[in-house]
């Protein structure tokens, strides 16, 4: 259950439910529901489809909903009346339409589209930026200059001799004999041919002999120009321009993928041709409530060779605040900075609203009165581990930005205002979950202790407006954070009004459900529980929080005991490393909930640990793994394993290890340093850290986490024992070079020591770390004749919950259990186990 949206008055909520079926029979994948926030009526099915339905958005009058569904694989925006019926297809954009937002008056709708570079070139009639060495964007196009002809005229009549193909006025004529047209030789410093130029007969004569010919036939020379037809041929053995055209045709047909861009890896496939995210505005046609009017033509709001992120309407309905790249001649792949801009629907020009030096600004959200914009701000300093924060800026530009959430010490996500501008809501990873937080940025206590009425503006401190600032400490003015839900829950989507909040969440007892609450958050009530019937027939194993302290750190984990077994049984343990650097960590999703319940239902005790470097535990905890992806985090996980193994219901002689993403990396690293585990499972890990730089989309982790690149600090001789000891040393991060740190923390460095049975799982389309990572470790272990098994899931990316089919997800769970059962011998369930449910 994802993507909830409250109606304008907060009386109803729209939401989508994805139903996953591991069987072969077709079943609806997504459904769009509407429910009353009072909870008095059952949710009403508004529309269902075999494809995903996403991004429901209410019309301002509350009578219609816009949503996105694919048409022949391309997402488009549809509009459906609240009383049901056949949806009206509003867009037919060739590159798709996403993230619909109604304008304040409901007459227009804003949406985003990912436009490929060739289409941007047609829109702008400008050449794209390129880093192709020795090539330009136009070197397949050549308009040759006019040809210069030598005309031989009679020295008395000045009429041309009939051996030339021109008349008295210089117009080309059909020659009357077989004599070649005389071309005046032209010389160029760079020939556009792969073969030697031809030599004309008369051009090769000496001046004396040529003059003798003129005298004999009483001729005098003259010149004229004749237009030459442009060369459009494409051939592998032609001129250089023809060769380039031939190669370009192969590129367009898919014969060869050609790229010179930096960010060539996408999430699941290579991206040799860049795409740019742009916003469009489309007018709602008249008659949509009574018929099927002709589909309107969208208008481009942003354009060019730069991308734009989230956008939000200003109250007048004629302007939009949007996050986007600055104008630059650099390749867009090298530009990480984002500024805030104001786009006007009636002019093609963008106006810069806010730029903070060395920071990126995203996710703008404007107050209802249009006075203030909230946004997400992140530092671009190379070694910064500062969390993403919320900033505020008055749209008149007469006060400096305010950084609001520094005291929270968590990575905030998107920002949502309450309609009256009093509260500001966000979610952030925290202690293994994703709670909902809120702030009152403009609240001030009066003398009688009662809060003042909200005033969503920043104090004016200058007479003229500014749009560029340098970050300094005076901007940091934190507001107190109020945590509204527990850290044991993960809020996936939410929406708010002045009186009501709705949110979809996963909690320890429910994989996915929709709740409503008052803004005081003291009256939570379920609105939709799509898994309730399935849960009523099963026992749910709730996790218990566990904390261990060492290295001056408090390390958190969750321990889950199987509940459907006799109390006297001692269960084997499966220790899972979660968390880690955010780019590689797996979020807490309903799929993670089902994994926990499935494995404990099979008799395995679970320990889920968050080692140093994980988000949601503060900046100091996150920085504790700088240049230290192996030794320190390994001690964290081993400490949790030791604590769990000492529990009365666990069997310390039967313990396995596992992890996904960074958890898979840490699993393989630990196996190279200890043989204490009976078996291990790793999914989509990074096992060769230096190779991540060139082989994965998450390559920026290398310089950010290790202070440089694999070629920085290469020692004059090979690795030695002082660097790679057999112990788990506490590394001195300041003394390590990037080269040393990368190899020291790379699991492949210690692969020759791995003797634990290992199940390696790899998404076949995982471009975030590179699909070859699992192959490298598997091949090394097979050469060494170690107990290893390799599973590859075709078309699956780094995040299985977003890219794997239902059958692939089920297959991963079952294979994990079956492999662990070979070595842990878990007890047989008291009843025949059932397959995981369909969330």
From TrEMBL:
InterPro entries: 6-blade_b-propeller_TolB-like (IPR011042), AB_hydrolase_fold (IPR029058), Peptidase_S9_cat (IPR001375), WD40 (IPR011659). It comes from the Bacteria. GO terms for molecular function: serine-type endopeptidase activity. The lineage of its organism: Bacteria, Pseudomonadati, Rhodothermota, Rhodothermia, Rhodothermales. Residues 119-147, 166-194, 444-465 are annotated as: Disordered. Keywords: Hydrolase, Protease, Serine protease. The keyword Nucleus does not apply. SUPFAM superfamilies: alpha/beta-Hydrolases, DPP6 N-terminal domain-like. The keyword Protein biosynthesis does not apply. GO terms for biological process: proteolysis. Pfam families: PD40, Peptidase_S9. This is Acylaminoacyl-peptidase. Residues 595-689, 743-824 form the Peptidase S9 prolyl oligopeptidase catalytic domain.
């Amino acid at each position: 259950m994802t993507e909830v949206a409250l109606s304008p008055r907060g009386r109803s909520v729209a939401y989508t439910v994805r139903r996953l079926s591991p069987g072969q029979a077709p079943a609806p994948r997504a459904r769009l529901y509407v429910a009353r926030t009072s909870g008095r009526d059952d949710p009403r099915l508004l529309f269902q489809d075999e494809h995903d339905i996403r991004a429901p958005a209410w019309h301002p009058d509350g009578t219609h909903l816009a949503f996105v569904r694919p048409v022949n694989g391309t997402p488009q925006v549809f509009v459906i009346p609240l009383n049901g019926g056949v949806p009206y297809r509003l867009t037919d954009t060739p590159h798709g339409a996403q993230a619909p937002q109604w304008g304040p008056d409901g007459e227009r709708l804003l949406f985003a589209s990912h436009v490929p570079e060739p289409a941007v070139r047609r829109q702008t009639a400008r050449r794209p930026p390129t880093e192709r060495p020795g090539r330009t964007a136009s070197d397949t196009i050549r308009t040759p200059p006019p040809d210069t002809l030598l005309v031989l005229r009679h020295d008395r009549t000045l009429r041309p001799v009939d051996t030339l193909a021109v008349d008295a006025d210089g117009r080309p004529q059909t020659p009357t004999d077989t004599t070649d047209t005389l071309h005046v030789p032209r010389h160029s410093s760079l020939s556009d041919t792969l073969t030697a130029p031809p030599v004309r007969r008369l051009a090769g004569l000496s001046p004396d002999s040529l003059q003798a010919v003129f005298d004999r036939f009483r001729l005098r020379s003259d010149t004229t120009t004749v237009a030459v037809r442009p060369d459009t041929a494409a051939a592998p053995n032609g001129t250089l321009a023809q060769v380039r055209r031939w190669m370009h045709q192969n590129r367009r047909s898919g014969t060869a993928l050609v790229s010179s861009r930096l960010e060539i890896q996408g999430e699941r496939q290579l991206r040799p041709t860049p795409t740019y995210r742009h916003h469009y505005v489309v007018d709602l046609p008249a008659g949509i409530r009574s018929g099927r009017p002709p589909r309107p033509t969208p208008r481009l709001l942003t354009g060019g060779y730069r991308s734009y992120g989230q956008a939000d309407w200003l109250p007048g309905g004629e302007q939009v605040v949007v996050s986007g790249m600055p104008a630059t001649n650099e390749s867009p792949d090298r530009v990480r900075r984002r500024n805030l801009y104001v786009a006007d629907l009636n002019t093609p020009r963008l106006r810069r609203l806010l730029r903070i030096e060395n920071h990126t600004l995203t996710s703008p959200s404007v107050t209802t009165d249009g006075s203030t914009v909230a946004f997400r701000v992140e530092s671009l300093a190379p070694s910064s581990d500062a969390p993403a924060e919320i900033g505020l800026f008055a749209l008149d530009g007469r006060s400096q930005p305010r950084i609001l959430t520094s005291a929270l010490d968590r990575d905030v996500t998107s920002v949502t205002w309450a309609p009256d501008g009093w509260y500001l809501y966000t979610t952030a990873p925290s202690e293994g979950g994703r709670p909902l937080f809120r702030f009152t940025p403009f609240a001030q206590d009066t003398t009688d202790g009662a809060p003042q009425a909200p005033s969503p503006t920043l104090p004016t401190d200058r007479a003229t407006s500014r749009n560029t600032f340098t970050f300094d400490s005076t901007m940091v003015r934190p507001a107190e954070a109020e945590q509204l839900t527990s850290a044991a829950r993960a809020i996936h989507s939410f929406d708010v009004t002045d009186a009501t909040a709705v949110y979809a969440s996963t909690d320890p007892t429910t994989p996915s459900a929709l709740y409503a609450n008052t803004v005081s958050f003291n009256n939570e009530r379920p609105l939709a529980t799509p898994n309730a019937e399935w849960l009523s027939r099963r026992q749910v194993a709730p996790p218990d929080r566990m904390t261990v302290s060492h290295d001056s750190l408090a390390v958190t984990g969750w321990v889950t005991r199987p509940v459907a077994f006799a109390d006297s049984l001692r269960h084997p343990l499966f220790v899972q490393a979660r968390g880690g650097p955010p780019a590689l960590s797996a979020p807490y999703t309903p799929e993670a909930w089902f994994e926990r319940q499935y494995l404990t239902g099979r008799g395995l005790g679970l320990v889920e640990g968050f080692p140093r470097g994980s988000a949601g535990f503060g900046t100091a905890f996150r920085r504790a793994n700088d240049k230290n992806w192996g030794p320190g985090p390994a001690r964290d996980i081993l400490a949790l394993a030791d604590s769990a193994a000492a529990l009365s219901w666990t069997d310390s002689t039967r313990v396995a290890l596992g992890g996904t993403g960074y958890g898979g990396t840490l699993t393989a690293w630990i196996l190279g340093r200890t043989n204490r585990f009976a078996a291990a499972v790793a999914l989509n890990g990074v096992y060769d850290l230096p190779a991540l730089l060139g082989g994965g989309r998450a390559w920026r982790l290398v310089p950010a986490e290790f202070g440089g690149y694999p070629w920085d600090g290469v020692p004059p001789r090979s690795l030695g024992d002082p660097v790679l000891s057999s112990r788990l040393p506490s590394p001195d991060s300041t003394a390590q070079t990037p080269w040393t740190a990368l190899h020291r923390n790379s699991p492949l460095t210690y692969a020759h020591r791995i003797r634990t049975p290992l199940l390696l799982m790899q998404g076949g389309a995982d471009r975030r770390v590179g699909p070859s990572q699992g192959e490298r470790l598997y091949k090394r272990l097979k050469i060494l004749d170690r107990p290893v098994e390799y599973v590859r899931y075709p078309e699956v990316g780094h995040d299985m919950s977003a890219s794997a089919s239902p059958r692939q997800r089920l297959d991963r769970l079952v294979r994990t259990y079956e492999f662990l059962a070979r070595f842990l011998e878990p007890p047989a369930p008291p009843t025949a186990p059932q397959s995981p449910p369909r969330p």
